[in-house]
Write a structure and sequence with these properties.
- Helices cover about 0% and strands about 40% of the residues.
- With about 280 residues, it is mainly β.
């Protein structure tokens, strides 16, 4: 997990570089936490929140945590600050022919394929508004590809969203996986929805698109809020270099198999969040 904020929070920015609060319990496996801010208390812990980080917490500035709440304890004045903004970022697009115009053939669609139970199928492509902009809620199967969403990826009611297109309970590398990019809007995944989302990992796909699940491009400072319900699982990197990323939940437990890179990060609520980094599953 990487918080990119280079210094103290700028005027008008509501969030500290990295905060854990409430009664949240987070486990960071296969990696650690890096806090790029050189400010005092760049990494803070409040309430009864706790974190176990397999490879530790490295804070360029200093931390303020209760004894025993973070294992191992954060290391202050640690590491070399990263340049901001990041020099190299992917540049996904749904303008497949590169003519600067989104043709009708490059637009994505959501189609209802069953009414009892209610099931929808989404095709990749450009979506001019929010996603998913259909009702009532149900199960949504996202077919393999890149989803360019102009506004918000927002779940306001109970959804089941999956990338398991053939419904066999396994990830099929060559036929499944998505990259979800919100060009201007935010990402809100509320706790009443269950999500099983896997990034594209097909080796035949361009490397800019592989193993990147959620992407909010530089300059999009909308919030990414992940309030996972029990049983939700996310696989692939989550990059939002200009955004605040909030992972939260109440009395839930969910898995994030990811590398999380945001401008600032907070973990809150009473959720048990298992964050696991596997190099082969990340961008």
């Amino acid at each position: 997990m990487v918080s990119l904020m280079p210094g103290c929070k700028p005027n008008g920015w509501a969030h500290d570089p990295f905060t854990i609060s409430g009664g949240s319990t987070s486990i960071v496996g296969g990696s650690g936490v890096f806090v790029n801010s050189d400010c005092d208390n760049a990494f803070t812990q409040n309430g009864s929140a706790s974190m176990d980080a397999e490879f530790g917490v490295c804070v360029v500035g200093t931390s303020n945590v209760a004894s025993g709440s973070v294992d191992p304890p954060p290391v202050s004045n640690c590491g070399t600050p990263l340049a901001y903004p990041p020099v190299v970022l992917p540049n996904p697009s749904c303008d497949n022919d590169g003519d600067g115009i989104i043709a009708q053939s490059e637009e994505g669609t959501i189609t209802q394929v069953s009414s009892n139970p209610r099931v929808y199928s989404a095709s990749p492509g450009y979506y001019s508004g929010d996603f998913p902009d259909v009702s009532p809620s149900g199960k949504l199967i996202m077919q393999k590809g890149v989803y360019c969403i102009d506004d918000d990826f927002q779940l306001n009611s109970q959804w089941e969203i999956t990338t398991d297109a053939n419904d066999n309970g396994e990830f099929d590398m060559y036929s499944e996986g998505v990259l979800i990019m919100t060009e201007n809007g935010g990402i809100t995944l509320n706790g009443s929805s269950t999500l099983d989302l896997h990034a594209i990992s097909d080796p035949n796909v361009h490397e800019d698109l592989r193993n990147l699940l959620f992407f909010m491009p530089l300059g999009n400072d909308s919030t990414l809020n992940m309030n996972g319900s029990s049983g939700s699982e996310f696989t692939g990197s989550i990059w939002a270099p200009s955004s605040h990323c909030s992972l939260e939940g109440n009395n839930t437990s969910y898995d994030v198999n990811s590398q999380l890179m945001c401008y600032s990060i907070s973990l809150s609520g009473s959720a048990n969040i298992d964050i696991t980094y596997n190099e082969n599953e990340n961008h």
